[in-house]
Structure formats: structure tokens, C-alpha cells
Amino acid sequence: MRWLGIIAPALLAGATIGGTAARAEQMCAVDLNGNGDAADPGETASCTAMQGGTWQCPLEQVACPRSAAGSYTCPLGPQYGCASAAAGSAPTCSPVACIDTGQNPIETEPVTDDPGALNDGQVDADGNCLGNIQIFSGRALRCRRPGLEDTFQNCCADKGKIVKDGMGSSLMSLSNKITVAKNLFTGIKAAYTAYKAGATASSAANAGAHAIIAGIDPTSIAISLAINFMIETLLQGCDEQDMETGMLRGSGMCHEVGEYCASKILGICIQKAKSQCCFNTKLGRIIQEQGRPQLKDFNAIGWGPVKHPDCRGFTAEEFQALDFSRMDLSEYYGDVESKAQSDIQVDMKDKIDAYMQTINP
Fold it and tell me: How many domains does the structure of the chain reveal?
């Protein structure tokens, strides 16, 4: 299937991108690979100004042969006009239409700012929560595939394990489930803000790294890898959520919920994104993935809608109902070299039992 449309990259367009309105541009797009969108490299282009005040799309452009009578005709059909880009250049034609993006702005899905489970309930004199508690809670995030708005860079690319699983063999951080993710976002936002304000990618990344380690134990993140990651992704056109998701995802802390169209124009998808549920530990992600199928409450919703994933944690009752003997934690064991698997299982059980006693005496 093929269809015609219009696109507008971040530096052009009649859309508002990053809060800045840009000038209108004649652009074109076509589904060249037949997958139903124009979000892949080579499927979008700027149109060329032609003689006579017209525009022509370079996609599928062909030369117009000259007849014996001296006129030019388009081999693709008489409905397509031939035109020259400059004096003396050979006439060409294209079957792909050009449209002014100022008249057809890009429609972009708003980025979900999910803070995760908040510490907003009442506590007793000893600081114990009196309300609902969520265990292994996550946050809904997204990262963008190579597409128009991220200059066809893969903002979901795995750059290695940057964030370390701070839990180790302990579950002591259950009461502070999203600290790493929150402070990571603080650092990423600082780097992105500095870069947008004119700082070099290197200085912006350093500012982001300082903001990250100011809020968490520096041993929980590979700072040098984080700096390199931020420099690379800033230069690629990835935004702060792309970067945060990339770090957590590469560190094994995200569950991919699905893929959706993040931006479109005239109904044509020009940018795709992958939605994620990200946790502050790999163990949290593994237990969520293998625990949800065991619980009736999750059977109907799964991970929720692709655009707005349900990344909530387990209630105390749900967590107690989990059968850990049915879970394959080998992926987690591989990251913990200091203890045997049997020791880890005993340690986990002891920590869980102790934690449950504190929240449900």
C-alpha cells in the first residue's frame, strides 16, 4: 500500500516542537516499504522549489524524456507535471505530492510525565505508612525509535548497564522504590536544560552527572558511562525522557509494553515510540513480569494501554500472594556473584518476611 503525505522535521515545519514555532516548509512523505507509515529513514524529504513557483518531491523522482516534438512528458503518467529546478537542468517529475506544513501541523502525543507512586499518604508517629502501599512500583516512560523528530536516531538503543541494581541481594529499598529513577530524571533534565540553553554537550552532560550523584549513592550508577551516554544522545536529538528511558532500559530495568505512533500528520505516522514500564531495579522488573500473570487483578489489564501503561506496584496483599517458587530469577542471579542461588533465595525470603511485618504487623 502507498499513500502520500507531508512531514516536518524538528528544525522546520508549521508545528510547534519543544515549545518553539518554526517556519512552514514544503515537505513530502511516502510509505516506501509498505508497512503503513512514513516513519522510517528515506521515507521523508524536503520538497525542491521548481521553476514557475511549483514544488517537487525528490522521493521517487524520475527524469522526463523529451519527445521528437521537443516537449517533455512524465513517464509516470500525464497527471504528473514536468519541471526544472534551475535554468538548464533537465526536467523531472514525481508521483509524491508536496503540501505546506504550515497548513497541516504535526499532531504529537503529549509525553506522559509519570512521577510513579508518591509518598502522599498519612504516617504514624514512627513514620509507618497508614495508607495503601505499592511494592515494586514503576513509572510509565517512552523512548523514540529512529524517526523524523529525533533526526532518525535510535533513542531506544541499548548503551550498556549504566544504572546498577542497588538492591543487590537485599530488599531493604522496598520502602523507597523509585529513588534511583527520580534522581536519574533530575540529572537528565538538568543536562537537557543546559544543552538547550546553549551549553556544549560535554558540559551539559557533566552538569547532569553532578545532579544525579547529588541525590543518590554514586556507586549505584556508572558515572563515566552516563556522561558518555548523555553526550551522545544530546547530539542525536533525543529528549530528556528518551535519555532516562535509555539508561534504565539498557540497565535491564524496563518492561516494553508496546509500540505506538508518537507523531503524525494528515493521519500519517511519521514518528514511532516504544512505551515502557521502568523500575528502579532489575529485580523489580523481573518480579513484575513474572508476578502479574499470577494475579487475577492483572489478568484483564495486563500492562494497560500502550500509550498510557499501568506500571503500578503490588499491594501488600498481592505481594503476599505471589508464589516465588514459580518465578525464574536466573537473570537476577547472574548479576549477583557474591552469593549462591540458595543463599539469595533465603535472603530474599527473610527480607520479604521482615518487610511485610513492618507494613502489616
Answer: 2
